[in-house]
Amino acid sequence: MSRVISHTLRTGQTTRKPRPAGATVASVTYLIVGLDRQTLAPWHENVRADDVAGATHVAVARAAARGIDLVLAAVIGPNSSIVSVPVAELDDRATSSQAA
């Protein structure tokens, strides 16, 4: 199973290319910020992941396990940088996790 490197372009689209065999992955802690769609209550959590898409997927899954319908507001990465995640990518991950 090869890991994938994710690159976010200025247009917000994400490209992926295979990571070389034996390459190590440096996990990063992301602050995921959002709202509960039902109550509009603020929600945030730190998530350690290899990339932004993985961090958002983990955050949405954790929130769902607590009965929270999470709407993402921001993903904050290292050095307080706000990172974009294409909505289409999140929708693809949500439908694939619901099918499983």
Describe this structure in words.
The protein has one domain. The chain is of the alpha+beta class and 100 residues long. It has helices at 52-65, 87-99, and strands spanning 4-8, 14-18, 28-36, 42-49, 70-76, 82-83. Helix 1 (52-65) packs across helix 2 (87-99). The two termini are 19 Å apart. Helix content is 27%, strand content 36%. Strands 4-3-5-6 form a four-stranded antiparallel β-sheet, covered by helices on one side.
The overall pLDDT average reads 75
Beta fraction of the residues?
Answer: 35-45%
Sheet with the most strands: spatial strand order: 4-3-5-6
For the terminal residues, how far apart are their CA atoms? 19 Å
Write a compact overview of the structure shown.
With 100 residues, the protein is α+β, with helices and mostly antiparallel strands. It is built from 2 helices and 6 strands.
Keywords:
about 100 residues, four-stranded antiparallel β-sheet, single chain, 2 helices, two-stranded antiparallel ribbon, alpha+beta, elongated
Write the layout of secondary structure elements.
Blueprint lengths: L3 E5 L5 E5 L9 E9 L5 E8 L2 H14 L4 E7 L5 E2 L3 H13 L1
